[in-house]
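Dear Dr. H.,

I hope your travels went smoothly. While you were away I took the liberty of generating a structure for the chain from your last submission, since the lab meeting agenda had it listed for discussion. I wanted you to have the full record in hand beforehand rather than looking at slides cold. The sequence, exactly as received, is reproduced here:
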Amino acid sequence: MLQTDKITALYCRLSQKDMQAGESKSIQNQKLILQKYADEHHFFNTRFFVDDGFSGVSFEREGLQAMLHEVEAGNVATVITKDLSRLGRNYLKTGELIEIVFPEYEVRYIAINDGVDTAREDNEFTPLRNWFNEFYARDTSKKIRAVKQAKAQKGERVNGEAPYGYLIDPDNRNHLIPDPETAHVVKQIFAMYVRGDRMCEIQNWLRDNEILTVGELRYRRTGSKRHPRPQLNAWYNWPDKTLYDILTRKEYLGHTITGKTYKVSYKSKKTKKNPEEKRYFFPNTHEPLIDEETFELAQKRIATRQRPTKVDEIDLFSGLLFCGDCGYKMYAVRGAGTLERKHAYTCGNYRNRARNDMLCTTHYIRKSVLKELVLADLQRVTSYVKEHEQEFIETANECSAKAVQKTLTQQRKELDKAQNRINELNILFRKLYEDNALGKLSDEQFAFLTSGYDEEKKTLTRRIAELSQEIDNATERSADVKRFVALVRKYTAITELTYENVHEFIDRILIHELDKETNTRKIEIFYSFVGRVDTGDKPTESISYFRQIGADVKSYAI
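The corresponding predicted structure, in token form, is as follows:
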């Protein structure tokens, strides 16, 4: 391509901050200045490249990238901007364009107001001007960040967007009102999730009812592409992440939370989540869409989230079963076929016995036996509460403090034991590493010996985190007997177990090992808000045949 046939690129940029300055920096004003300069100085074949509403700090701009594409293709002879800051406010990247990229492709660069012309050799102050432009951007960013933080501290909304299911009140931008078009969708998502529906079933409901995704709905209402707009055939395909974001938002309880994210740098658009302690919480600021019980049940299921089984279902007791002796989670195991009588649970520590030396026993219990036992005990407890409500409230309040203290003592002992074992493993790792470094131990021997210890350490680390969280929750939680009573009143009668009622009523279940001398096994059921419930009746029992010892086994709940 001949030099005379090449493009004269006229680049214009306007940021959100520049818009407040008025017509002097407008895109139209820049176009007039650039075209007039090109005409007066005999630059032909002009083409405009425009970025309207883009910060000069970022170089991921559509207009700029289109221009650079033409530069790299060898189609541009000259690039002209109104001033250096229009090209960018990052002095390193701006300098790279002016001093490396443009010369490499024999492109002349002109910044009219700053008197920069790379065809001349008097541009020594250009780097300094770029530095001042970046300094301006940094100072502006600092001021904006301070204003936003001040607003966040007062509970004012700073991102300009309402959570899905709400609208910004036209009379008060800091107040939210339910969106008549989408509020029912939020309620349905929560309702389906807490009753145990799988995520794909919620997604199918949304698709079958042609519920637009968050991104597509915002685009249709505002034209904004802040959230990625799905393809034509995916307008109703809700991603898992979006649904989990909805299920964890406390705004649906009627609260305002500000300061949830922060920018890593004024040069980057990337944001990170602030920890809970750095956020600002303002309760009861608008109408809730979800009640406390439903929200807590959803969080409980999210915390114990498991993948569907091979038969594509979420286990009824997912996240509730723990070994009564070592405290580890119980895991579901399946026999051949799909008959539920072949489904059972075993201690997770026992299952991983080949990879660690923290031995435990199987604690095997059939799912059918456990279901029968839990249903019977749940019926026992709910019937007692309905018939002796006041007596139950008084007894539960009295026993609560003792039960919490006992649990805390056990958990702290287990935590100390696990932490001591971690320290032992660290010493072992150090010794093995030294032996390997000194040649006393080959690389193969080192890898073999450390593999088992490494898995044990990972398991212990996870358990320490779980215990620490449980202890924190226990110390903060007091027995809310009235909430349990209200929960009982919700149900006229419980005739079968569902994911919803199991996870509403039960906090955790401890499975103790079978006593082979008496053929009995103890099951401890801890109910939400109140812990173990003693009605004064005989313990709930379930009898099953245990093939391993060839005898009837009595399981009883306490």
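Two observations you may find useful: The longest helix spans residues 389-437. The CA atoms of residues 110 and 117 lie 5 Å apart.

With kind regards,
E. W.
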